[in-house]
Amino acid sequence: MDTRRVKTGASVTTRRVIAYIVLVLITFLCLFWFYILFINATRSHSDLARGFTLVPGGNAVNNWINLMHSSQPVLLGMRNSLIIAICSAVLSTYFSTMTAYAIHAYDFKIKNFMFTFILAVMMIPTQVVALGFISLMGKMHLMDTYIPLIIPSIAAPATFFYLKQYMESNMPMALLEAARIDGSGEFRTFNSIVLPLMRPAIAVQAIFTFVASWNNYFTPALVLTTDKKKTLPILIAQLRSADFLKFDMGQVYMMIAFSIFPVIVVYLILSKYIVGGVSAGAVKG
Amino acid sequence: MDGGKKKSGNSNVVKYNRWGYIFLLPFIIVYAVFQLIPFISTIYYSFFENYRSGLKQIGPNFIGLENYVTLFSNADIWKYTENTFIMWIIGFLPQIIVSLLLAAWFSDPSLRIKGQRFFKTVIYLPNLIMAAAFAMLFFTLFADSGPINSILTSLGILSEPYKFMSNTGSARILVGFMNFLMWFGNTTILLLAGMMGIDTSLYEAAEVDGATASEIFWKVTMPLLKPIFIYVLITSLIGGLQMFDVPQILTNGEGAPDRTTMTLIMYLNKHLFNKNYGMSGALSVILLIITGILSFAVFKVTTNQDNN
Predict the structure, then answer these.
(1) ipTM of this predicted complex?
(2) What is the 3-state secondary structure (H, E, C) of B208-258?
(3) A72-241: CATH homologous superfamily?
(4) What is the pLDDT of residue A9?
(5) Mutate to test the interface with A, among B128, B142, B246, B300 (most CBs of A within 10 A)
């Protein structure tokens, strides 16, 4: 290799080929597990015991029926997860928009303090105050209810921050002043002008809050004790702690698939907004 | 952060300003009840002897710093700190390398990578998967008689099934690997956003000067990317401290083998479940202090960036 070639480095074509090879490998690494999950969820227990195959089996319906009649209340679990996740997403985005609007559109004494405060506490993980949280919920007789899992989402610093950033670049104050001149009350302005304007950002944050709540395991596991109230992650954990080698493995895979695939389907439909939303929120401030 | 620029031109707004308080009220009330009071009472609990021994409730009796002394004199906390840190590193190193590489390729105009949206969608996918279900999936896949062992033996790579869950190394690598899979897509997108923000004329100038792709990467991209890089590092460290779902489900809360995959939050969870409030208080306060320091660093990095 002559010196000139070293100077230019690898040619663009070489680098492109390497990039595609690595990308394909990484794609494989990301999807492989879900492929096995899909295959195994369609095979029967005795098939699974015989080893792995690359083609799906014909036992999906049976596994599904077995799962529905098992001791694990998975359908109830899904309903509970849905209730909590939807309520959290709606409340979190509505009130975070309201908080962002308060900081964005008004001038008042504690405004700067509040903004700094919210940014400062944004990173504090919920786990480290779980002790105080659980004991307070106990005293308020809210244990084993959904309130401790839904209401706290109203105060969501990260959601607030994203919406505040979006508001700064997409919400002209002139529009709000025009609404005032037209005699619109502040609360009405918020509901009929601010919320619709913020819709793209709200949608992104609603998805994130929903997914975070749907996947949450730590807090629900501490709060919920009645079997019929438990969410999907808790049921998964129970499945793990049961002596599951005695279980029908087809059914076990079906249950994992049941908690993973709905999210994947929704994600694939909305991926454009989600991936865009992550980059838009990427450390702008 | 920078309130000055917003104050200008809003003089008409003054009489409406009490609405600022009204709109802020839901946040303040909910935050105070569900975060601030728990925060204070967590610290308060850490100074009391308060646990359950069988059916008998001991305490609460004020014992000062004794919980902290007990916590630190026991070797467990050091062991769990070490476990948490090792598993974080196992996940973070490949994550940052792969993410930098992918972000550099995606943002490189001379490469013109096709199907970027597809690749971004795929690499971000594992981040949205329920960690509990993902861990359960890995537990079944890597079980002694699971599909991975079945594939490896039928390909002749292994002569007999490898006990992934019974060896410290492999169990930790599995946890780290899952964390890697779940977070590298997110990191790639963050770094990519940072790289796309870099002025392209800098690259063009470097190219005219005859710099190679790797020279451009190390001498132009990396220095400009430093704030985001620090942000990613610290937030990942905070996330690493919170590591719970994956090792908890994978090892059924036992941190098998021999508690070598037991993380700090798993330890906290164990105390909370046993209603061992004094000790969980002390442990929470320690974690609060560490995350507090790290959060402050993130806060500094982000606010500095915003002022630029």
Answers:
(1) 0.90
(2) HCCCCHHHHHHHHHHHHHHHHHHHHHHHHHHHHHCCCHHHHHHCCCCCCCC
(3) MetI-like (1.10.3720.10)
(4) 61
(5) B128
